[in-house]
């Protein structure tokens, strides 16, 4: 039987709730849209933090994508296990992660690894560890372009740090990394303007360094909200992540982007404890709770207001609650997909209304082998 709605399963009796369903045909659409927007794979470096899944990495490799970005050592190892050629750890390694990063380099010699640095102390630590191991470490300088989360301001201190990177015999200075996740204007023209303003000092920094004869090999910039703009810049690798699965949050903010939601929560009504109240089995353990309500957009549950969430429960006020029965299946798009994926050991793979496979979310763990 053909489904009326793209997200619906024809048979749910053996599907555990909550589950996170993924739709490979939609993921493939999103990958191809990313490639089209970037003009090909050369200027594209997608982030895997959203999905953390080997099969989705392999789908991207199959479409010619060679360069990837990740946030954890486990994600970097997953990419290496998939034989990804070029892997950026976009989290400055400190503490035990310094040794783990060099462990990746030793264990997976077929992949090229790089990392970020934004201060002299970390540069020295990375350089010394590379010297001891008789290797060169590939580093990008992380720029604070307004988000104030990580990075060095693109001023004279950044010039001095990059000089030291370039002059260090144990370091390969790869270029500049600038993440502008704070730019989320819903108006496209205003978002582009804000993106250009934030990116201009990065270009100036590159030009100032090259005027000294220091080659800046490349720039990695942006995330999903500014992907359309960085994807059009010559010599810049754009690095979207949420675009692989998309979510209700970005779908509402950026409707002009041609990405499809490719991950849906399946949940069930478990109780009707009071008039106009429904309770679902979609607690904190299964849906990221860091966003204000609404935390999901229901696809088949109308006239409801999201009122509360605890470890195991999600409570709704529903004016037509009498239309729903205990045990009914509900489908919902997360507002924030990235931390929601990390709550699941596996993704249920859907094709033509049926669960046909199960993909392990391998890199949700802090450690794979290293």
TrEMBL record:
GO MF term (any one): D-serine ammonia-lyase activity
Origin superkingdom: Bacteria
Gene Ontology biological process terms in this record: D-serine catabolic process
SMART domains: D-ser_dehydrat
Keyword Lyase included in the entry's annotation: yes
Keyword S-adenosyl-L-methionine: no
Keywords: Lyase
Pfam family, one: D-ser_dehydrat
Coiled-coil regions listed: none
PANTHER family, sorted: D-SERINE DEHYDRATASE, ZGC:162816-RELATED
Name listed for the protein in its UniProt record: D-serine deaminase, pyridoxal phosphate-dependent
Organism (species): Pricia antarctica
């Amino acid at each position: 039987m053909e489904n009326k709605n793209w997200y619906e399963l024809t048979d749910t009796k053996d599907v555990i709730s909550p589950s996170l369903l993924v739709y490979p045909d939609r993921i493939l659409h999103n990958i191809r849209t990313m490639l089209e927007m970037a003009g090909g794979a050369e200027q594209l470096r997608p982030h895997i933090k959203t999905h953390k899944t080997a099969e989705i990495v392999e789908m991207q490799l199959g479409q010619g994508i060679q360069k990837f970005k990740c946030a954890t050592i486990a994600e970097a190892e997953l990419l290496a296990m998939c034989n990804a050629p070029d892997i950026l750890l976009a989290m400055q390694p400190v503490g035990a992660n310094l040794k783990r990063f060099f462990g990746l380099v030793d264990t997976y010699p077929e992949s090229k690894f790089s990392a970020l640095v934004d201060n002299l102390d970390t540069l020295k630590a990375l350089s010394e560890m590379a010297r001891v191991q008789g290797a060169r470490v590939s580093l990008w300088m992380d720029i604070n372009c307004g988000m104030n989360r990580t990075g060095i301001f693109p001023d004279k201190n950044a010039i001095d740090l990059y000089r030291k990177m370039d002059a260090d015999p144990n370091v390969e200075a790869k270029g500049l990394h600038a993440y502008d996740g704070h730019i989320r204007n819903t108006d496209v023209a205003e978002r582009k303007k804000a993106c250009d303003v934030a990116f201009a000092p990065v270009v100036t920094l590159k030009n100032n360094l090259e005027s000294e004869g220091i080659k800046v090999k490349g720039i990695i910039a942006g995330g999903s909200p500014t992907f359309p703009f960085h994807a059009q810049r010559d010599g810049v690798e754009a690095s979207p992540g949420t675009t692989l699965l998309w979510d209700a949050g970005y779908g509402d903010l950026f409707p002009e982007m041609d990405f499809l939601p490719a991950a849906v929560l399946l949940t069930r009504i478990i109780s009707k404890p009071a008039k106009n109240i429904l309770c679902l089995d979609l607690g904190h353990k299964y849906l990221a709770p860091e966003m204000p309500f609404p935390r999901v957009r229901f696809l088949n549950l109308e006239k409801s207001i999201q009122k509360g969430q605890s470890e195991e429960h999600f409570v709704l006020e529903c004016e037509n609650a009498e239309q729903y029965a205990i045990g009914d299946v509900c489908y919902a798009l997360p507002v924030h997909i990235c931390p929601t994926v990390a709550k699941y050991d596996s993704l249920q793979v859907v094709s033509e209304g049926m669960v046909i496979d199960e993909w392990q979310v391998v890199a949700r763990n802090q450690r794979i082998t290293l």
